[in-house]
From TrEMBL:
This is Antitoxin. Belongs to the phD/YefM antitoxin family. Gene3D superfamilies: YefM-like domain (3.40.1620.10). InterPro entries: Antitoxin_Phd/YefM (IPR006442), phD-YefM_TA_antitoxins (IPR051416), YefM-like_sf (IPR036165). Antitoxin component of a type II toxin-antitoxin (TA) system. It comes from the Bacteria. SUPFAM superfamilies: YefM-like. Pfam families: PhdYeFM_antitox.
């Protein structure tokens, strides 16, 4: 996925165009005075990122008991 950086003023001025680019799958990083302060991401990507993060936490946790397995909450069989 392509990522582009834009300043806050440009983001405000061209929000509609930026949203169209995000809908097509692009990630937009909004900066203020050259520092990243926000990201515009497609919704589907955010959900996939959340699931990937949950998987990484399960791998990192190994044998740690952190409560209910998230898969059980969704009716899936744990691996």
């Amino acid at each position: 996925m392509r990522s582009t950086s834009v300043g806050a003023f440009e983001a405000k001025t061209h929000l509609s165009a930026l949203l169209e680019r995000v809908e097509r799958g692009e990630e937009i990083v909004i900066t203020r005075h050259g520092r990243p302060v926000a990201r515009l991401l497609p919704i589907a990507r955010s959900a996939a990122d959340a699931q990937a993060a949950a998987e990484r936490l399960l791998q990192i946790g190994g044998d740690l008991a952190l409560g209910r397995d998230w898969r059980a909450l969704h009716g899936e069989e744990p691996h």
